[in-house]
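Hello again,

I reread your note about wanting to compare the complex against the isolated chains. To keep things tidy I'm splitting this into two emails, and this first one only covers the full assembly. Below are the input lines as submitted, including protein chains and any nucleic acid or small-molecule components. They are followed by the predicted structure of everything together. The single-chain runs will come separately.
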Amino acid sequence: GAVVSQHPSWVICKSGTSVKIECRSLDFQATTMFWYRQFPKQSLMLMATSNEGSKATYEQGVEKDKFLINHASLTLSTLTVTSAHPEDSSFYICSAYLAVTSTDTQYFGPGTRLTVL
Amino acid sequence: RKEVEQDPGPFNVPEGATVAFNCTYSNSASQSFFWYRQDCRKEPKLLMSVYSSGNEDGRFTAQLNRASQYISLLIRDSKLSDSATYLCVVNSPWSSYKLIFGSGTRLLVRP
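Full-complex prediction:
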């Protein structure tokens, strides 16, 4: 099946710093990627939809100036958490959308665990 | 009301047991339905799609009742390796490729 990678798999940073997370589709081109956030014992919440070559679409309540998304190529999307604070500590997961048949599928990356001290 | 609701569990069952998970969704316009499995500290992985006629994949059977907006997952002959959190997922009525996740039902299968 299709493979999506994320880097780094975990990161610990000081409050106020910025952290960049990369999401790559390794064996297919993804015009659309999604960024999710999951707090402990909670559901995955969609943060934004990232489209190659255009601005990301953010879900209600997600600050676009804080969570910067860049989808520079068909295989790479990046999420930058700017001026991170402890409340941003979470599990960030990306997915890449592959439209092949009527049963479209999202392939998830392994996630990035962010801890802000 | 949450868009996708699940009993959080945990369901604690012995090996070999049959266990059923239920899920309700709020928007009748949703068209695609899935069950995902998520292991601790890992990404979710697609277990199976759910079709109107019901579908089976080995020990797993999924059912959809559109009239009641209800989805179920039945696991027969539970294995220790089935221990995980099972996520009920539906697509957004406003964008077919956007997914809405339930908070998951945790399953613990004991020896």
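For quick reference: The longest strand of chain A covers residues 90-98.

B.
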